[in-house]
Amino acid sequence: MTASSPDLDALAARIAARLVARGETVAVSESSAGGLISAALLAVPGASAYYLGGAVVYTPKARDALLRISTRQMVESGIRSASEPWAALMAKTIRESHGAVWGLSETGATGPTGNRYGDPAGHACLGLDGPVACTITIATGSADRAANMRAFAAAALGLFAEVLEG
């Protein structure tokens, strides 16, 4: 598996062109995609014009350290990982912490098994926060971990590109 594929590269190039033309920026918070979203965006020459930073938030410890959202806050808010409310909060938090125009997030279960919340492998929630805010849930129906990571990254970038072009 490579850090990016032609599909990811093409999506990232489309996003980069829109962000540069609009003078806008993005920060990324991803989990199951393992950094592939950020890698694709950073592979585009001139990424420093629009990419402000990102975080791979794979564990509760990372969530606390990188997003400053504690387990207590999660419990009190009733939000669980790998859900649309969590994807929305991730996107909003990373956008605000980096002072970006856009926050993009991904959270899910790559496989080969599901997660502890009962979501099957291939389940992911994506979030976007900024001038437009939205969340979606996708399901690949696959237990192939590497393929799911790429699919989650492509879906997140696809959502972002669609909103920017829409």
Q: Multimeric state of these chains?
A: single chain
Count of helices? 6
Please give the order of strands in the largest beta sheet: 2-1-3-4-5
State the end-to-end CA separation: 31 Å
Description:
This protein has 166 residues and is of the alpha/beta class. It has helices at residues 6-22, 36-42, 60-67, 71-77, 84-98, 145-165, and strands spanning 26-30, 51-56, 102-109, 123-129, 134-139. Strands 2-1-3-4-5 form a five-stranded mixed β-sheet, sandwiched between helices. A hairpin with a 4-residue loop joins strand 4 (123-129) and strand 5 (134-139). Helix 1 packs across helix 2 and helix 1 runs parallel beside helix 6. The N and C termini lie far apart (31 Å). The model has no long low-confidence stretch (mean pLDDT 95).
Secondary-structure map:
Layout: H1 6-22, E1 26-30, H2 36-42, E2 51-56, H3 60-67, H4 71-77, H5 84-98, E3 102-109, E4 123-129, E5 134-139, H6 145-165
Parallel strand pairs: 1-2, 1-3
Antiparallel strand pairs: 3-4, 4-5
Short overview:
This protein is of the alpha/beta class and 166 residues long.
Which keywords apply here?
about 170 residues, 5 strands, about 45% helix
